[in-house]
Amino acid sequence: MAVEAIRQNKLRSILTLLGISIGVFSVIGVMTAIRTLETSIDSQLDIFGTNTFTVNKWPDIYVGGRGEGKKFRERKNIDYYQFEELKRRVVLPLRVSVIDGEGERNIQYNDKQLKRSAEVTGADEWGLRSFNTFLSAGRNFMEDDIRFFRHVTILGPDVADILFPFEEPLGKQIQIRGLDYTVIGVTERKGQAFGESQDNFLLIPISVYLQRFSNRWTSLRITVEAVSAEMYDKTVDEVIGLMRAIRQVPPEEENDFEISSNEELAETLSGFTGGIKMFAAAVSVIALLVAGIGIMNIMLVSVSERIKEIGIRKAIGANKRDILTQFLMEAIFLSQFGGVVGVILGILGGNLVALILNVPSVIPFDWALYGLLICSMVGIGFGIYPAWRAANLDPIQSLRYD
Q1: Residues 61 and 269 sit within 8 Å (Cβ to Cβ)
Q2: Which side of the chain, N or C, has fewer Cβ within a 10 Å radius?
Q3: What are the respective helix, strand and coil percentages of the chain, to the nearest 5?
Q4: What are φ and ψ of residue 270, in 5° steps?
Q5: Does residue 380 carry a pLDDT above 70?
Q6: Which residues are CB-neighbours of 350 under 8 A, at least 6 positions away?
Q7: What is the pLDDT of residues 19-78, one digit of tens each?
Q8: 319 or 178, which is more confident?
Q9: Bigger pLDDT: 287 or 126?
C-alpha cells in the first residue's frame, strides 16, 4: 500500500527522492574518492623503502602562505660537503646516500629523442635503493664511477622503451644535453603512482650531475636507512643532531631542514583528507535535512489527501498502529530508495578518481551502510509526525471528509 501510494504521486515522489539522493551522493561520492586515494597512497607510498627517511631542505608536502614558503626558501641548501660529513660521522645507519634530480627533454639516441621530459637524477652507488627499485639488466654504479666523474647512466624502463625499442641498450651511448653517456643498466618496471609513471627517469653519477646540472638553487636529498625498525628512532635522532652540528644551527633555534618518511607523509595526507571528510559531512547533513523537510511535506500532503481512505481503513478494523506503520513505511521507503540511488551514484562518481589516476577502484561498504542508516533515521525522524497525525484522525470525521 505504501509503494502504491508513492506510485500514484510520481512527480512529487521523484522530487523528494532527488533531494535524498543528492545528499547521500555528496557524502558517498567524496568518501569513495578519498578512500580510493587513501588505498592508492597505502599501496604506493612506500617510496623511501623500509626503515628509511630523508633529509631535505623543503618538506615533501606543506600548506602555508608566502611567509611559510619564504622560511623554507631562505634555508641554506644541503650540499655535497654536508652529505659527505654526515656519511663520515654517523654510526647507527645501515647506509647514507644522496640523490637530486630535474626534468630534462634533451635526451636522444641516434634519431630517437624523448618527446616529454624525463627525470635526470644524480645518485651514488645506493641510488637504486633510494629509488626503491632493482636492476633488470646491467650493473649498478660503483664508487669509481662517482669518484672519477664517469659519464655512465642507468635507464628507467620508459626511457629505455623509447630510445631502444628494438635493440639492447646496454653498452650503447645516449646523449644528454649533447654529451655522451654509456648505458650500464636498466631498472625493473615499477608502474604508476598517483597517476604518474615511476619509470620515466635516468640515473647518472651524483658527481657528474652536480658538475653538469646543478645551480645555486640545487639542494640535495639525503636518504638514510636504519639497521632495523627498533633502531629507527635512534638513527633519526643521531642524524638530526649531526645535521644541526654540520649546518651550525644554534641550540635555541629549530631545525633548518626536514625529516621525511612514509609514515609522516601518510599522516600529512590523512590530515588533508580528514578536513575534506568533515566538510563533505557538513554539506551532506544540510542536504539531508532539506530532503527530510521535503519528506515531511509530502507526507503531510499525503495525509491531507487521504483522510477519507484513513477513515475507511479504521472503520473496517485498522487500529492506530496499522495507520502509523503504513505512513511511516512510506516515509522510510522514500528515504531508503533515494539513499540506494545516492549510494550507487556516489560510488560510481567517487571511483572516477580511480579511473583518472589509473588506480584500483574501491567500494566503501562502511560508508554505504552509514548512508543507508542515516536515510532510515531521516525517514523515521521526518515521517513520524505525519504518520502520527494520520493515526490520530477521528474515523467518523474522516468518513465525512470530502
Answers
A1: yes
A2: C
A3: 55, 15, 30
A4: -65, -35
A5: yes
A6: 28, 29, 30, 31, 32, 33, 34, 35, 36, 364
A7: 777 777 877 777 777 777 766 666 655 555 568 888 998 887 665 555 567 788 888 999
A8: 178
A9: 126
pTM: 0.64
Q: Which three cell numbers stand for residue 205?
A: 653519477
DSSP, collapsed to helix, strand or coil, labels residue 311 as helix
Give the number of other Cβ atoms within 10 Å of residue 242's Cβ.
Answer: 19
Hey, what's the cell of 336? 531508503
Distance CA 397, CA 18 (A): 35
Neighbours of 141 (CB within 10 A): 23
C-alpha cell at 62: 606543506
Given a contact cutoff of 8 angstroms between Cβ atoms, the answer to whether 224 and 53 are in contact is yes
Q: Please report, as a single letter, which amino acid is at residue 114.
A: L
- CA-nearest of 272, 278, 274, 271 to 27 is 278
Q: What is the pLDDT of residue 268?
A: 64
Instruction: Report the alpha-carbon distance of residue 6 to residue 338 in Å, rounded.
Output: 13
Percent of residues, the chain, with pLDDT higher than 90: 30
Answer for the pair 200, 148: CB distance below 8 angstroms, yes or no: no
Contact 94, 130 (CB under 8 A): no
CB 260 within 8 A of CB 54: yes
